[in-house]
Amino acid sequence: MKYYETEFIIKGDESLIQDSRDILAAMAGEVGYESFEDTDSGLKGYIQQDALDEDELAMMIKDFPFDGMTVTYSTREAEYRDWNEQWENEGFEPIFITDNCVVHDGRHLPDGPVETMVEIDAKLAFGTGTHETTKMVARQLIETNPKGKRVLDCGCGTGILGIIALKLGAESVVGYDIDEWSADNARHNAVINGVGDYYDALLGDAGILDASLSFDIILANINRNILIADMPIWQPLLNKGGRLIVSGFYSSDVDALIAKASTLGLALESRHNDGEWECLCFHF
């Protein structure tokens, strides 16, 4: 996938700079930005090239809510060769989702035995378990107990969530992603974890899902706008008594997501947060 890098420059009261960064990241997340990093002068944001809407971005900046704080920005193509360079060249230390579930790179292993071991070869896709939203969805999945269940992983990335489900006894997993690298990487990771026969990775968005499919658990770690747009596609595929577990959004997005889910007969079962990030589990 190809990304743009937008550098946001924040000026104004120094005591409000960090709050401004947080608000700016939340607003940018709503228009499609996927990841951020703080800079000395503000914030850098990354967005898929086909997701950038210049008019929407300009309107977001115009509506910035802090009086006396100004935000300017410039956008350029991100250097594609740098994505995941650290993971590919150096690997990563084991990441504990829970005490009994760890993600590793195949080179750096945990000390001592762990019940559920998931190996992720990140290549050019994202999703090693470091991000708060990935951890929250994985923990909710573990708590939900996927044993014997059919699972759908929306925007599967590396396939980490579906692979955890299979390692915990899920019957089968279908994952899909709009990025060809991600779909290929998910298949690859399923194979190296010994669950390739039970993992089907599709290339495309939610529109690729066949109406005849049915699932007991649906996972979606995606931004708020896509969650709201795709819930009506997922709901008919969810078996009665099933769970929809979603993350990838901020606290300010929760009310809108709960309201949308309610119109589809999905009742909020649990809510978790890690800093500014949220995870919701709905029961059908």
Q: TL;DR of this structure?
A:
Helix content is 30%, strand content 32%.
If you had to describe this structure to a student in words, what would you say it looks like?
With 284 residues, this protein is α/β, with parallel strands linked by helices. Helices cover 30% and strands 32% of the residues. It contains eight helices and 14 strands. The strands form three sheets. It has a seven-stranded mixed β-sheet with strand order 10-9-8-11-12-14-13, sandwiched between helices. The chain has a four-stranded antiparallel β-sheet with strand order 2-3-1-4, with helices on one face. Strand 13 and strand 14 form a beta hairpin. Helix 7 packs parallel to helix 8. The chain is globular and about 55 Å long. The two termini are 34 Å apart.
Question: What labels describe this entry?
Answer:
14 strands, 30% helix, 32% strand, globular
Largest sheet: 7 strands, mixed
Number of DSSP E strands: 14
- Described by the principal axes of the CA atoms, the overall outline is globular
Mean pLDDT metric: 89
N-to-C order of helices and strands: EHEEHEHEEEHEHEHEEHEHEE
The strand line-up of the biggest sheet is: 10-9-8-11-12-14-13
Helix content: 25-40%
Please give the structural blueprint.
Layout: E1 3-11, H1 17-30, E2 35-39, E3 42-48, H2 54-62, E4 70-77, H3 85-90, E5 95-98, E6 101-104, E7 116-119, H4 132-144, E8 150-154, H5 160-167, E9 172-177, H6 180-192, E10 199-203, E11 215-221, H7 224-234, E12 238-250, H8 254-263, E13 267-274, E14 277-283
Parallel strand pairs: 6-7, 8-9, 8-11, 9-10, 11-12
Antiparallel strand pairs: 1-3, 1-4, 2-3, 5-6, 12-14, 13-14
Helix pairs in contact: 7-8
